[in-house]
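# step 3/5: fold
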Amino acid sequence: MCLLDRKPELVERWLARQSAAVRRPSVTSELAASWLAASPFKRSRSPSRPRESREWRRRLGLLDEGELFMELIRDVSNELDIDVLCHKILVNVGLLTRADRGSLFLARGHILIAKLFDVTVETELEEAVKKAREEEIKIPFGVGVAGVVAQSKTVINIRDAYTDPRFNSEIDMRTGYKTNTILCGPISNYEGEVIGVAQIINKTDGSKEFTERDVEVFQRYLTFCGIGIQNAQLFEMSVQEFKRNQILLNLARSIFEEQSNLERLVTKIMTEARDLLKCESCAVFLLDTHCCEAILLESLVVKTSLSTCERKPLCRRESNNVNVEEILSPKDISNFKFTTVFELRSASQKADVYNPTVSDLGKSKLAQIAKYVATTGQILNIGDVSSWMNEDVTGKGDSVVARCILCMPIINGQKQVIGVAQLINKETGQPFNENDVSIFEAFAIFCGLGIHNTQMYENACKLMAKQKVALECLSYHATASIDDTTKLIKDNIPSAEKYNLYSFKFIDFDLNDEDTCKATIRMFLQCNLVEQFHIPYDVLCRWVLSVKKNYRPVKYHNWRHALNVAQTMFAMLKTGKMERFMTDLEILGLLVACLCHDLDHRGTNNAFQTKTESPLAILYTTSTMEHHHFDQCVMILNSEGNNIFQALSPDDYRYVMKVVEQSILSTDLAMYFKKKNSFMELIENGEFDFQSEGKKELLCGMMMTACDVGAIAKPWEVQHKVAKLVADEFFDQGDLEKLQLNTQPIAMMDRERKDELPQMQVGFIDVICLPLYKVLSETFPWIKPLYEGTLENRKHWQDLAEKVEMGLTWIDHDTIEKPIEEFTGDEDAKEIEFTVTTLNCEKKAGDGEGTGGVSTRRANGTTMGRFASLRKNRALGKSVRTRISRSLYAKSSSGSMNQEKKEANEDTPEKSEEANKTQTVVQQKTKSKLCSLF
């Protein structure tokens, strides 16, 4: 029976004593830190000194057999240093079995590697570790005594080693020591897997063989040793992970401290790698990823084709799995070009940097290996370079012969290969092991991020320099000429009354380009802004001409539109008496914002920029064009001789620029709809104090929108002409959407649906213009002309919408496209007739009577005379026409109110309710269309 079975009281006594003892601390970062801080040899409690060994064995000799066994188990169970643990195991096994010496092998895959070899009870730990590291012994599973034990998982007891075919006498012949008896057993973990093999040879008590008692003690002791070894290996892994994390953190800190110079960064990276992995030489090959100074801004957001996202995760390949010809003659390397190579040798602190030619890359074997790694994205570990390639391999200008190479791709955060890192020759002379590969792999990730960030930083600096040069060129060409500025300075500026600037019915059609600039300057003079803020008159003239020059010749959003918006703001401030709510600085900011609010408009709206993914849409995700208009305003102000704010104090300058920015952004109708309810709520609550910052911003935003859509309140002949300009610009965008995007534009931009524009104008007035002008005129009665003019124009648009419903066209088609096919009727028909007047058609001989030409329609659907787009058999009842023409704000006119009451009496309550519901739905749909439109 086993000793443990025969004396169970010893086991119980030992377990009780162990449970009362303090438990071993868990493996934490603190334990790892303390472990790192101490020398492993100081921690060792192995009998590594002769005096200590004798004293320790004398103390063990006082114990009985059971207590001795338990003490030896306790001794190894608390040890976490793998070297110390293996040494203790061999010494303790020698004591238990009276063995002369022993060896311990640890499994790595299906190979046994000698951890300690030929250790006696007198061998010191330092000596044993040094001996094992000087000569690494590898034994495959199934080969030799230890290999067979590892494969079969059984204990082998050999009485005569030289008669056993599994015994290899080569070591005996080399050392002169004769092996007689061998006892070899497997060391397994808790899952039953072999993690090592222990082997002892020759008895010291004169016996010629290991007894069954020795085998039993040996086997049971190794069972406990397996658990201890596994714990020590786990702890060693945690310590290595802790060390690696500390190294990578220090690396990351040092890398990201150096982001301005690529050469210094790569040199620092290679120095860290060389010192970390103890290698003789290090090299970094950087790929050409087209990140040069000639790159355009748009190409920065385009992913390059050189990406590893299509391949599997990084694969590690040993040299014996890669054919040399596969590296020297890769299939396709046309897309890979190394632009810069950095080499750092062990005796140097500065890297050699050169730009290789095609010839250099073709001659260098190291470069060819790097190209293979860059092409495949694989980690290549070559253990013996010379025998593998059948030649010596050196770097450029380097006398060091590459014995072993570890080569790995460098990848940035976008999974793109941006380079290759090579480590050459470990200082120990051994090949790079799995731990080296693991550390270098994590190391390469940080290197990739650092190199990529530095490249992006350098490119950004170059792009900023290019942008500065471009701005200098643009400011020169976008700034008014000296001759034009001199002429405007010398010209006489007519009065505001001559230009009718105080009126909400201002018309710019009769003004030439010079007069538009003079009218603009008159507004600044009339508001006393030039004197108040010490604006040099020549700077003001140059700035006005520069702003005018930076408007594109689009059909509506051009300089004339900016002038009208600024004049409406001037009229609101002066005639509408809104200046009493504003400071002089805010008046200056509002006028500047009105003149600049559509700078460099391209005739397309924000939705078009987003759909086409234009550079503007990439720069600004919301209020795209409005942000661009403000940036153009800033660009002009920063151009030489154009800064009208140059005399302002820093605080005033910051404030007026804030007013300008917020005012320009407020012209985005999406912003208007967001702020409208807040403004309406203030007015409903009886708020008339707009001096606080938030309320003033709301008021300025509403005033900017009122001025931006102010053309809707102009006299009818002006409003009708402006509407045609807007329609032409919208239709041009619709044509672009069909051509570029292959999509159907919305109705307001579809040239095929131009006859629906009057009804959409009615919706635009009802949803945006009338509600805004109504609340402003009720709060500030002096701007009521805007509300009244809009009401009057709504009647005209509604009348045209009804004509369209009857089959007529609202506009003469030759201003937009060729006329639509005309219809002619039976001239002999004699039925009830009624006439309608077409719009903007000059009276010609042969036309019917009445202004603009008359067309006659008979009850049977035939026509007489000339008018376009007549639809046969299309008649509307009176109630239907009433529902279409009824206005939400007609009650403000007594005549309209009486007419509405009269028509309401004729209709039934059900019809009236239906009309209200129909109008509400139309308004909601119109609002959603307008939000997408603007």
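# step 4/5: annotate
The mean pLDDT is 75.
# step 5/5: archive (pending)
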